[in-house]
Structures are given as C-alpha cells and as structure tokens.
Amino acid sequence: MERKEFTVLPAIFQQLAAFNYNKAKDVAEKERCFVISSGTAPVQVWPSFLSCLAQLAAVERLYMNLNLLTVKGFLRRENSVRASYECLLTELSDLETRAALPPAGGSTGTESCAGVSGLLWSLCSELLSFIRARICLIKFYESCQRSTASQGLLDYSDLAVSIADISSTYADNFTQPLLTALHANLKHECDVLHCVLQGMCSIQQYSFLAALLQLDAAHDALHSWQKLITGRESSKKYSFSSSFLKASSVPALYQWLWQVKAAATAKFSFYFYDSLAQHASLSDIKILLAKQSVDYVAKLVSFYRRVEATCVCLVLESSGIPDYRGSGYHLHQRTLSQPPSPTTNNLSTAAGGRIPPPPPPPPPRQQLSSGEVSVSRVRTFTRIFCYPLLTNQSQADANESSVCWASAQQFLVKSIDQLPQARDAVYQLYHPQTGYTHYLHSVEPLVTLVVSYDCHRTERESLPVRDFLNDISQHLNLIKLFAALKPK
Known about the structure:
Radius of gyration: 29 Å
Structural class: alpha+beta
Largest sheet: 6 strands, antiparallel
Mean pLDDT: 81
Distance between the termini: 53 Å
CATH class of the largest domain: Alpha Beta
Low-confidence stretches: 238-247, 340-377
CATH architecture of the largest domain: 2-Layer Sandwich
Strand order of the largest sheet: 2-3-1-6-5-4
Strand content: 5-15%
Number of domains: 3
Helix content: 55-70%
C-alpha cells in the first residue's frame, strides 16, 4: 500500500509550481497538524519538513508578487523576503542532516521509514539549491535597482554573467522528479533574464543579428513558460459566475519579465530603425512600431514638432566598437574601415555636401554611409537615427543637414568625455560660426542624443528639451522598470 507521504508531497509541489501558494500552504499545514495530533509521523523530521514547505509557499508568494526588496528604516525589524529565505536555508540544512541519519533499529516499518527519510533528504538537498538560487536572484535584483537609482545605467555584460552563473550553478542541476515543475519556473526566469541582458549588450555594441537572436530567444523562453502556466490554468474548473470574478493567478514577476523584454524590443526597433526600414514600407514600419511598448520614433517626431527643433539625432561613437561594421547584418568576412577625417573647421566644405577624398592609406569617401562623419583620426560618430530623415531630402535640406551635423560633431569631440560622468546632465552648447545651438545628452557610454536648433537658445527655452532627453533616456535604460521592484 502506498504511503500517504508519497501522495501529499506531489500535491504540495504541484500547487507551488502552479503559483497556488495559499493552497500549497493549507495542504502542508493540515497534514502537519494531522500527523502531530495522531502521532503517525513516519520519521521525526516529517512534521518539521511540512512546516518548511508551508513557509516556502508563503515566501514564494511574496517573491513572485515582486515583493523582493524592502525599504530599510530606522528601528525596523528585518522581515524581508531575503531574510525569510535565509531562515529557511538554515532550517532545511538541519533537516537534511537529520534525514541522513538511519532510522532507529527495531522500530516497525524500518524499511519504509528509510524510504521516507531518503526521499526527504533528497528533497532537502535540492530545495537548498533552489533557495540559494532565489537568494542570488534577489541580490541580482537589488544590484539592478541600486545601479539604476544611483548611476541611471546598468552594466548589462556583468549582469548577464551573474545570471549565467546562477543558472549553471543551481537551475541546471536538479534531478528530483517532484521538483521538476518548480525548477522549470526558476529555469525560465533565468533564461529570460540572460537572453534580454545579452540582447541589451548587443544593442549597445550595435550588433544587429546578435541582438535580434537574443531577443528572439527571450521571446521563446517566455512563451515556453506561458504554455506551462496556461496548461496549469486550463486544468482548473471554474463555475460560470466565478470565471468572471476570479483574479488572475499569473504572477507579477512573470508579467514584469514580459515588460522588460518588450522594453528591450522597443529599444532594438529604435536603434536599428534604418535597417528595419529598408525591408518594409514606411506605413508598415509605423504600424509595427506603434505596437511596441514605447514607440521611440513617434515620440521623437512629436517632440521635434512640438519644440520646433532643426534636427534630432541618435549618435553612436562607432570608433568605440572594435569590430564595427555599420548598420544591419554583415557577413563575417566583410569589414567596414574607419572613415577618413575631414578638417573639422571646414564647414563650408560640409555645406557643399561633398568632402574630397584624402590621399591613401585612408579609404575613399565612397565607402562611408550618408549619415557617417568622422571628426578626428581617433573618434568617429555615426547618426544611427535622424529626424528629419536623411532619405528623400531636397538638395537644400541636405546641405542644411550637413552643416548642422558638421557643427554638432565638433562639440561631440569636445564634450563626449564629460557626458558619462553626469548621466542626468544635458549640455547646451552654442556654435557662433554657424549659429547652431546643440543639446547633448549621454544615453549610454557610446550613444548620445543630440537636439539641434539653427538659432541661439536661452536657458529658459531649454527646459522642455532637458525634460524630454532625461525622460527618454530613462525609458531606454529601463530605469523605471527596475525602479518598480522597490516597494513604495
């Protein structure tokens, strides 16, 4: 006859994996009360193990509802999710040690008790790894929140390495069948975070194909997780009236990960707009971008018209990328040489729209894209997005755009080193030779937003520009999304 323990445990873990934390807690507590009152515990650690499972259900509910971080206050008792996991870690470590001890000799059902002890030891061992992974993930989220709050920027590369370490150390090393579904949730969370962070790294390095593949992998991981969730939901039965009144059981963390992935996709669409626009009509591109969580192109166009700017550009310091190949996908055999360096003071040449090719060894001018201008032999800047669009411009508009860009790139060389040191700073610079005013704001180490006017602007007139540049930078760096992790 099958022991009751082998039917209770699958029921508890099934409810945990399906995010029914209250139900899992109730089952564990009722079984614990029953074995204590009846004195039918197969082994001494069984009631304590059920108590740990009830605590785990309560803490998991807080974790998946994004109650990850706690606001530290004066004389406030430490009662955070992280502290609760650490307490569970201590209790399960003690139970693991006790479950490894052989049952007392001469007791009835010694072989059966040994089987229960072995099962509990195995569960304790793997639950310890699961909880350690949870603690590492909380530290990860804390690090992200602190970085966005203090610096306004995340180091995506280091964060991706951290997630990869958590996944390889904990999420990939589970063998207990009872915990398969619970560990699948952990694995999907790590996979989504890792793919999104890798995608953000590739966007920073302006690598079109790598970013596309990573974001597609994040999308696949979320959909795989969604199938598990919807499969569990479909197994439930609701009455006609309760189907309208029941609250969604989809955890907030899962929804937040969808938002992070959507934000990364919107940023990808903005940075690689020129590449995407080559493969679709303008109307199709507008429809696709409107479906994104943030339509950056529409925001910039609306801002451009509202403040009556001359030009709004997203500028990449392409010389900071060792293997820079230009926009779009390129074969590995093809390389894009750094463009030549025109005389920065020769604005009249730029105004004419033609720059004479320098003598060898630098490559000829024809190898440059229309939006790419070099300002020195060391640094090269490329307009990866510009409005008004560079295509289909009249000759007069093209000449004006060239003069404006030649003026802006001089200030980029002078000010680019100062921008990363003050992320919220917007630099307002006036060029008396051409009469242009430029606003520079660093979005990322190699990316700068530039707003230009063909007239002199006062500090009072710059307030709408500063507010807009700070706001769009926060969206591009996911600051508001990670700020949502911290309770108010």
